[in-house]
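Data deposition worksheet. Section B asks for the primary sequence of the deposited chain exactly as it was used as input, without tags or linkers unless they were present during the calculation. Section C holds the resulting structure in token form. Section D is free text for depositor observations; keep each observation to a single sentence. Incomplete worksheets are returned to the depositor.
Section A, Depositor: J.P.
Section B:
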Amino acid sequence: MRGSGSKMMGKAAGLKVPAEVKWLILLTSFSSIGYGYLTTAIAAYLPEKGVSSGQVGLIIGISGLAMIISAIPFGLMSDRIGRKKLLLVGLTALPLSMFICSLSADPDLYMLAGIISGVAEGAILSTWNAMIADKTTVDNREMAFSISFIVNGALGGIGLALPFVFPILMGMGGWSSDQLHSWTFLVLGFVTAISPITVHRLLRGHQDLAPSGGLRRGSFLKERSKKTLVRFSINNTLIGLGAGLIIPLVPTWFYLKYGIPDSFSGPLLALSSLSIGVAAIFSTRLAHRHGQVKAIVMTQGFSTIFMLAIPFMPGAAWAGMVYLVRSAMMNMAGPIMDSYLMGIVDKDDRGLASAINSIVWRVPNSVTTVIGGAMLAAGYFALPFVLAAIVYMLAVTAFYFNFRRVKVHDETDTIAIGPR
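Section C:
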């Protein structure tokens, strides 16, 4: 009995997320406010200034392309020379995007800001998941990713919701919409700068080495990581392909179909972000009850049904509510997928695996965002949703058959790939 009790106590202790990881999540989340507001400004504020949905899609697509080009070299550097410096580079670049957008609503400036934020995203995505995985174990990793989704979802929601107060401030102070958007970007430039400053201090004792202890020569990826990523990429490629058709353009869709400005679509996206955070609370329990693969398939499958229903709802309010359910269901799988991937690839390949995982989602996403923008410009308001739902169902099906027998093991164990 004493041995059993000790084992249970050890397992309970293993479930606790390390304090350093919690602080890392909290301090980096200031950047999420800036990302949230930039998302709303590009997708909803620019159309109010007369920028076409095609141009909006192009800005979003170019930003994604910048992430794609930078993520692979960043991922290689992350696994070979360490993660800390690259994470700080990404966190430091984002404030520059905020300051650029504070100058004017010129689409060219937003394009430049989008490129910089894309490079920043490439650096962060190549290090963030890997760093959390390095500092956690199989027992508490999923909980750590859930906390990350909750905190970043909440602060990202604040950034998305900021335009909601603009009409009130305009009435009180007599300021114009242009002035408020410009000043908000200026303030957020300083707010997002909190992240690199505080994270640098938090990680001052962090050993800036790859998981293997230094530079690793030879193949880019170990054999088992290659096999895993090829299969994982099928799902992420299809999800990115479908999502790009409409998800980044949802504020644009609401503006074109219902005439709703960013002071309303921004808060909607904020609620969506908050619902993602709330959903992440239950994702760990769902994964423990049904297994990670089944939990991912269930949440992504149900979310597809709600997404298909959005353009057929009788009015903006109903469409908004269905969109919130769709977001919560789809993104409930987020922390489960991040934890799952970090657990089935070799620990020395986590940075590059995270970068590749992001790229295979972003490449088709960037391309189809341009296509989706063109569809909206042509007046096809339902077609992007329908096409996205079809692609999502293909992705969910492919994921289930590719990973139904792939189990996460401790770092010291082998990973089973395929039927056994």
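Section D:
The first helix runs from residue 2 to 14.
Residues 1-14, 210-219, 410-420 have pLDDT under 50 and may be disordered.
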